[in-house]
């Protein structure tokens, strides 16, 4: 007698309408890959409940259409000597022509700056960076941050505790 097949394990996602251009199977594939980007095609197919060929075609389409941007390893900053997480508010000198374009171009080539976001509110940009310690951050601020084009003022916020750190997007439908 054959054992009944277990239903496929599917990551928990709220039941809502899927994002435009996606069906529920696409969303389930994205959720599974978001949980484990190293999932083999066969394991992914088993998880989703489709054939490996069908899943591979969907993954290729999702990649081609820009839903999947790539696959990365998440590194442990504590093990790599970058335990201090810092957010920096940056205000630019708006009297300088093209200051925003110059600042954006300069930030792009600085590997110490992990993220840079133009924001609405009392400052222009929010930066995310990591350092070994306060001395290391101070050296970065003096040699890099305050030398970026158009920087008029900065406010630094050293993180005391990372309460939540995730790269997962909330996916709808699935």
How many strands, which pairing sense, and closed or not: the largest β-sheet? 4 strands, antiparallel
Query: Helical percent range?
Result: 25-40%
Structural class: alpha+beta
Distance between the termini: 33 Å
Report the top-level CATH class of the largest domain. Alpha Beta
- The poorly predicted ranges are none
Topology as a string of helices (H) and strands (E): HHHEHEEHE
Shape estimate: elongated
How confident is the prediction overall: mean pLDDT? 91
Task: Summarize the structure in words.
This protein is an alpha+beta fold and 174 residues long. It has 2 domains: 9-74, Arc Repressor Mutant, subunit A; 84-158, Lrp/AsnC effector binding domain/regulation of amino acid metabolism (RAM) domain (Alpha-Beta Plaits), CATH 3.30.70. 30% of the residues lie in helices and 17% in strands. The longest helix has 13 residues, at 52-64. It is elongated and about 55 Å long. The model has no long low-confidence stretch (mean pLDDT 91).
